[in-house]
Write a structure and sequence with these properties.
heterodimer; A: about 375 residues; alpha+beta; 9 helices; globular; B: mainly alpha; 10 helices; about 0% strand
């Protein structure tokens, strides 16, 4: 068990009652609206906040237990914490900031490890600079490096992207993906941005009004129609992990395989065999009850309906099982009635557009060639 | 350069500089501690501590000197005990002048340091804590460097104010040439002496030069430290 937490804490007018565990060593997102208790939760895990009651365990070792009075101080928990506002020490250079945690770690990183982390985050050219001269994205990367260099047992990221504009966010997201895939540190990411969570998380804990309301793998949670209003998803989407099969160099296309079938997308910069993560917006999925012919879309995936939920206005959301992968489609209620859709009904999903992110490194979102 | 000054006058100048230096150095550690306490902690009696710190600003210096005299005179219980136990004598000694200056200028130091400490983001200490730094470590390596502009500004202001202290010194340790006759006391003495107008003018000019120099130095130092600390 990477992390297990039961946290009960009262503020005036707010009560946090979280209980969740992280088994997966990858990236777990704590996802929920502002004010739902996300930051309080990670502050309690880090030791910066002492909960009224509860128990927190990291890799099987308790760090807090109100029953026995155990409360390991934050400085002894070895939990890396990257704050939303980076919190670099303004009086130290980037190098001084990076060394701050490394020098105090009971297990200081070797110079080879230091070099690898600096290289991974692309901050080698910033070492002599002062934090005040860095951009927002650079600051977050240095803060990530500072936390990693203490060789933490767990890494907490509290909305590290929230204060950044789109360009800065695009600059740091690939680093977070690499971190997730290469650093071998379990990561807990706090976020209220669905896009980031869908792109980065392996597992999601959904939190609302101080309670964890759902937890599980990202594809399962994001496609659960009953959670749509809670996750604040105005536009439902499916998340699918696929393998790169081969490239059609002349056509500029790449064929991907997942357990529901195959998809052609605009060329992905990854070798065959590499894993990619697909995000497919429900509104980009059309449904047909028989195999359509003479249409421009090339990606047709068979499946059957498992659930229909009322969507906003004239729309409804349809959940499909495509060979074990979950696909969501948003169509009008009139179309659903016309096609006679209901649970169990076999359909063909026509996918108009896919966003692709490599699992292991940077890649901009790509769109399907033909719509 | 010293041709215009008599031996007694240069003696007063050096004594002034020494008294002020010792006063500032002695008051600095408690000033840093007090400023930190007032900047970051809430405790019962905080308002009282705050008022006590500021008392020397509003109390007439003569009263302060009088209070010191009745507390630390060699015949007073505390002063007698210090003298007999440690051989420490404040009354009628330059160390007494330094003590009086230290107390009078204490609020200047506390105010400047407290302001710069209050401006430090408490989140930085939290970040240091998650990186493995204990309380003293955080204070020395995060709080103190970031408060340095305030510490320097406070020290220089207090130093300049010490150079001008008159009432508390003359009341507590009297006006002894070579021992407690600092610049202001020397000016006062020159004015009281027939034919001493020229000496008074020279010493006054010296005082003005010292004060202006101190202020300029304070601004330069604060600006440099701000630049170095990246703020």
């Amino acid at each position: 068990m990477t992390l297990s937490a039961r946290i009960d804490h009262r503020f005036p007018g707010f009560r946090l009652e979280m209980e969740f565990s992280v088994r997966h060593p990858g990236l777990t997102a704590i996802f929920g609206p502002s004010g739902s208790g996300k930051s309080t939760t990670v502050n309690a895990i880090s030791g910066l906040l002492r909960p009224d009651c509860g128990r927190i365990e990291i890799h099987g070792t308790p760090v807090f237990d109100s029953a026995t009075g155990l409360d390991l101080p934050a400085r002894r928990r070895r939990i890396g914490y990257v704050f939303q506002d980076a919190r670099l020490f303004p009086h130290l250079s980037v190098r001084g900031n990076l060394e701050f945690g490394a020098r105090r770690s009971p297990e200081p990183p070797t110079s080879a490890e230091q070099g690898r982390i600096v290289e991974m985050l692309g901050i080698g050219h910033l070492l002599g600079r002062r934090p005040a001269t860095l951009s927002g994205g650079e600051r977050q990367r240095v803060a990530l490096g500072r936390a990693l260099l203490m060789k933490p047992r767990l890494l907490l990221l509290d909305e590290p992207l929230a204060a950044l504009d789109q360009a800065r966010k695009a600059e740091i997201l690939p680093h977070l993906e690499r971190l997730r895939d290469e650093a071998r540190v379990p990561i807990v990411l706090v976020s209220h941005a669905l896009d980031d969570v869908a792109r980065l998380a392996d597992e999601i804990v959904v939190i609302n009004e101080g309670r964890s309301v759902a937890a599980g793998p990202v594809d399962e949670i994001l496609s659960r129609l009953d959670l749509l209003s809670l996750t604040g998803q105005s536009e439902p989407m499916s998340v699918i992990v696929a393998d790169v099969l081969h490239h059609d160099v002349q056509g500029g296309l790449t064929e991907l395989g997942f357990n529901g079938g195959r998809l052609w997308v605009a060329r992905v910069d990854a070798d065959p065999g590499a894993q990619v993560r697909l995000r497919i917006a429900a509104r980009d999925v059309m449904l047909a009850v028989e195999r359509p012919s003479g249409i421009s879309a090339t990606n047709l995936v068979p499946g059957h309906v498992t659930e229909i939920n009322a969507g906003p206005g004239a729309y409804c959301d349809i959940r499909l099982d495509c060979g074990g992968s979950i696909l969501l489609a948003r169509i009008t209620r009139r179309s659903a009635e016309r096609l006679g859709l209901g649970p169990g009904r076999e359909v063909i999903a026509v996918i108009k557009s896919v966003s692709v992110n490599r699992q292991a490194a940077a890649a901009p979102a790509l769109n399907l060639p033909a719509g | 350069m010293w041709e215009g000054f008599t031996a007694a006058e240069t003696q007063a100048l050096w004594l002034s500089l020494r008294v002020a230096l010792v006063a500032v150095a002695a008051a600095l550690p408690p000033a840093v501690a007090t400023a930190w306490l007032l900047a970051r902690y809430n405790f019962p009696g905080k308002a009282l501590v705050d008022s006590l710190v500021h008392l020397p600003l509003v109390l007439p210096p003569v009263v302060m000197g009088y209070l010191l005299l009745i507390a630390l005179g060699t015949t007073a219980p505390l002063g007698g005990w210090l003298w007999e136990t440690f051989g420490l004598r404040f009354a009628f000694s330059w160390t007494g002048a330094a003590l009086a200056s230290a107390i009078i200028t204490f609020p200047f130091q506390v105010r400047a340091i407290r302001l710069s400490m209050e401006a430090i983001d408490p989140g930085l200490s939290q970040a240091a804590e998650t990186l493995g730094a204990g309380p003293l470590d955080r204070f020395v390596n995060v709080v103190l460097p970031l408060a340095l502009p305030g510490i320097i500004a406070g020290a220089i202001t207090a130093y300049a104010a010490s150079l001008g202290e008159f009432g508390a010194i003359i009341t507590f340790v009297s006006n002894i040439p070579g021992e407690t006759r600092t610049l202001p006391l020397a000016i006062y003495t020159a004015i009281q002496t027939p034919g001493g107008e020229a000496a008074a003018a020279r010493l006054a000019a010296l005082s003005i030069a010292l004060a202006v120099g101190g202020l300029v130095l304070s601004e330069v130092a604060a600006a440099r430290v701000r630049r170095l600390s990246g703020r």
